[in-house]
Amino acid sequence: KQEVTQIPAALSVPEGENLVLNCSFTDSAIYNLQWFRQDPGKGLTSLLLIQSSQREQTSGRLNASLDKSSGRSTLYIAASQPGDSATYLCAVNKEYGNKLVFGAGTILRVKS
Amino acid sequence: DTAVSQTPKYLVTQMGNDKSIKCEQNLGHDTMYWYKQDSKKFLKIMFSYNNKELIINETVPNRFSPKSPDKAHLNLHINSLELGDSAVYFCASSLQRPGAGNTIYFGEGSWLTVV
Predict the structure, then answer these.
(1) Closest by CA position to A111, among listed A16, A41, A21
(2) pLDDT in tens, A31-85
(3) Are A96 and B90 in contact (CB < 8 Å)?
(4) DSSP β-bridge partners for residue B112
(5) A40 exposed, middle or buried (CB, 10 Å; 0-12, 13-18, 19+)?
(6) B-chain residues within 8 Å CB-CB of A89?
(7) Which letter does DSSP use for residue A97 in this model?
(8) Distance between alpha carbon B74 and the CA centroid of its chain, in Å?
(9) Which of A5, A32, A35, A98 to mutate to test the interface with B (most CBs of B within 10 A)?
(10) pLDDT tier for residue B58 given thresholds of 50, 70 and 90
């Protein structure tokens, strides 16, 4: 059974700092991995999707890496801003289709 | 111009009632989902429909019944509501293309409270 763990559970940083969020999964046989952002009272917004054959994806100040063999992914946020404050969720997709298995998330707070 | 919209956003109801949550997507996607986020904030898939056909059905009580009148709509009906059904229910949609990045788009959630 696939399990996804995210560390840390919560993180508070000053504005401008670079930070790394970690995600690990127990079954390396995945189809893809996605990072989402969830704002309070809102739905999830997809940030980055990495296919199992890829090593990383970048979008603006965000960079996600994937090491499938070790069951790990990281989300790197450069030059953090208060608007980045949200819960960040990692989810793995075991097979073709979107039967995502989610981690519990990392609550990020960027202080101005 | 919300891509995935679900109604109602908030629903408070008594135990034993039957309720529905509606979901519509205007993205032209062929696959829709219902996810449940419990009090511990874990998101878990409940159902998935592809072109109106059920393709994923997790171990969800049969009091929960999804209905897809067309591929742009996936409604969730819940019978005989129980206290443990209180959660946030998210609708989502995506395309299903082999080898493609099937980015999934979520609605804003429906907060269900059973009292």
Answers:
(1) A16
(2) 889 999 999 888 899 999 998 899 999 999 999 999 999 999 999 999 999 999 9
(3) no
(4) B11, B87
(5) exposed
(6) 43
(7) S
(8) 7
(9) A98
(10) confident
Query: What is the sign of the dihedral through the CA atoms of A104, A107, A108 and B1?
Result: positive
B38: tokens are 């419990």
Q: Which residue of A has its CA nearest to B39?
A: A104
Whether residue A98 is predicted with pLDDT greater than 80 in this model: the reply is no
DSSP letters for A18-80: -EEEEEEES----SEEEEEEE-TTS-EEEEEEEETT-SEEEETTEEEEEETTTTEEEEEE-S-
Transcribe chain B into DSSP letters: --SEEEE-SEEEE-TT--EEEEEEE-S--SEEEEEEE-TT--EEEEEEEETTEEEEE-S--TTEEEEEEETTEEEEEE-S--GGG-EEEEEEEE---TTS----EE---EEEEE-
Nearest by CB to A97, which of B56, B108, B109?
A: B56
